[in-house]
From TrEMBL:
Keywords (A to Z) from UniProt: Endoplasmic reticulum, Membrane, Signal, Transmembrane, Transmembrane helix
Subcellular location: Endoplasmic reticulum membrane; Membrane
Pfam families, per the entry: EMP24_GP25L
The protein's name in its UniProt record: Transmembrane p24 trafficking protein 10
Family membership: Belongs to the EMP24/GP25L family.
Stretch forming the signal peptide: 1-19
Cellular component terms (Gene Ontology): endoplasmic reticulum membrane
Bilayer topology annotation: Single-pass type I membrane protein
Domain annotation GOLD: ranges: 29-113
Length: 188
């Protein structure tokens, strides 16, 4: 019986790990940042416990507003990235003065990007795919995502190797010159 209860509890635990929850004090701001590659679909869902004046704003590093909602309590958002960039999701709580003690708000945020953000059930309906075909599509997208990530990491590794090589060349010239200069100073 204990094994059966554990098996029932595992999917609940896995689902709860995919989102983040935090308390937002009154008259404060909390932001979350994430780096996301170019041409990636990002979806999200949020729920805020109390109905007070809370603002949700999603921006990129250039300050472009991708999503904004005043008096946010519950909702969804989606956008596709144009460049590799750092994105910021900010929740800001404002309360008018003189309203007394207001408890902290519980914020639940579930963000998905890339393959996990795609709605394969909707794709199956539109393209009239069988369950096995949907799973194959999901696997294709996942493998393509992995290949793209490896290609990105390889490009970054090459850039870093080139930078290290250039710095090594500069140091090979600077260090002997500095040593020679100190030798001349000591002789004098």
């Amino acid at each position: 019986m204990a094994r059966f209860a554990t098996l029932l509890l595992i999917p609940v635990l896995i689902e709860s790990v995919l989102s983040i929850s935090f308390f937002l004090p009154v008259n404060s701001r909390k932001c979350l940042r994430e780096e996301i590659h170019k041409d990636v679909l990002v979806t999200g869902e949020y729920v805020i416990s109390d109905e007070s004046n809370t603002k949700l704003k999603i921006t990129d590093s250039s300050g472009h507003i991708l999503y904004s909602k005043e008096d946010a309590t519950k909702g969804k958002f989606a956008f596709t990235t144009e460049d590799y960039d750092m994105f910021e999701v900010c929740f800001e709580s404002k309360s008018p003065m003189g309203t007394g003690r207001i408890p902290d708000q519980l914020v639940n945020l579930d963000m998905k990007h890339g393959v996990e953000a795609k709605n394969y059930e909707e794709i199956a309906k539109v393209e009239k795919l069988k369950p096995l075909e949907v799973e194959l599509r999901r696997m294709e997208d996942l493998s393509e995502s992995i290949v793209n990530d490896f290609a990105y990491m390889k490009r970054r590794e090459e850039e870093m190797r080139d930078t290290n090589g250039k710095k090594r060349t500069v140091l090979m010239v600077v260090v002997p010159c500095t040593s020679l200069t100190w030798t001349c100073v000591v002789w004098l």
